[in-house]
Amino acid sequence: MLSLLVIAEVTGHAAEAAAPHAAGSANALTQITDAFSVNLSSLSAQVFSFVIVAVVLWYFAFKPVLATLDERQKKIADGLRYAEETKTRLAAVQQENADILKRAQVEAAAIIEQARKAAKEVAERETAATTERANSLITKAQEAIELEKQKMLAEARTEVARLVIATTQRVLAKELNDADRSRYNEAAARELTSV
Amino acid sequence: MASGKKQITQLAQKLFKLSFADGRLSEERVAGVLAYVEKNPPAKPIPVLRAYGRLVAIEVAKGRAVVEHSGPVADSALQSIAAAMTGRYKRPVVATAKPNASLLAGLRIRVGDDVYESSVSGQLAALSASA
Predict the structure, then answer these.
(1) What is the mean pLDDT of chain B?
(2) Which of A194, B69, B74, B92 is the most buried (most CB within 10 A)?
(3) Closest residue of chain B to A171, computed from CA coordinates
């Protein structure tokens, strides 16, 4: 088709170039057309019909096909762009997830550390309280033992004194004679009357 | 009940005051009081006489020094005790001896509710109390 158009164009230009020389070259053109059996009227009809076919094809074949191609290209571009956006969004989401995960890990680590510290403090407090209670119990036990010891010593001392006095009374009752008692009574009388 | 006891005590004290002559308890006055009560008995004679007897016994005990002793006591010692108690209580006090072997040695003198003691058992008891 294009080759025919080019030939026609070339033929047109040749005719136009030959116009100034029409007079001189009319004969030559006639000779050529005759030599190639070219009929101008049939050529014009062929050109006209060609143009009509070209216009019809343009409007009813090429244009829809080009529109379809443009639409498909646009769809492909949209798909590619959507894929690109999805990829970018996915990357952002992944990054965000990674950030969230990292923050969660940091927070978890902080919470674990805090819990560990709290547990340690509680353990230390419990240990201190237990130690204090144990010391208090030991002190009380020691005091009770000391009191018991003092009580036992006092009881032993009292018992020893009682035994000593009882023994002394028995010995004196046996050993003192009337002369001794008389002397003691005189001394007692002096003491009581002098008060 | 309480007022009855109070009346008995008041009557006994009145009779007791009537038993004194020259500031001292008189045997004659006591005999007179007893004769009066016998002749004119009060509403409750036995409780009145019991309270009166207690008052008289206390007053008699105030004029008597009971000297408990272990071993022999010289009369001179008893006399010196009577003299000392007479001077202390500003009234005649008579000393009477009473043997008490539990003293071991020494004397214990009772005048009324007062007790004076200088004996071996007393000293041992004090030692035992302080031990």
Answers:
(1) 88
(2) B69
(3) B104
> Per the CB < 8 Å rule, is B118 touching A191?
yes
* Residue A173, min C-alpha distance to chain B (Å): 6
Burial of A32 (0-12, 13-18, 19+ CB in 10 A): middle
Under a CB-based contact definition with an 8 Å cutoff, are residues B72 and B64 in contact?
A: no
Tell me if B131 and A182 make a contact (CB, 8 A cut-off): no
pLDDT of A13 > 60? The answer is: no
What tens digit of pLDDT does each residue of A45-103 get?
999 999 999 999 999 999 999 999 999 999 999 999 999 999 999 999 999 999 999 99
Crossing angle of the two packed helices A2-18 and A22-36, in degrees rounded to 10 = 150
Asked if the ipTM is above 0.85, the reply is no
Nearest to A191 by CA among B75, B117, B86, B122: B117
A181 CB neighbours in chain B (<8 A) are 70-72, 104-105
Which chain B residues are closer than 8 Å to A176 by Cβ?
A: 71, 104-105, 120
Residues of A in contact with B128 (CB under 8 A): 161-162, 165
Residue pointed to by tokens 């002096």 = A190
Q: Which residues contact A169 (CB under 8 A, 6 or more apart)?
A: B104, B120, B121, B124
Would you place residue A6 in the very low, low, confident or very high pLDDT band (cuts 50, 70, 90)? very low
Residue A31 has pLDDT above 60, yes or no: yes
Query: How many Cβ contacts (< 8 angstroms) between chains A and B?
Result: 79
Residue B55 near residue B13 (C-beta atoms within 8 A): yes
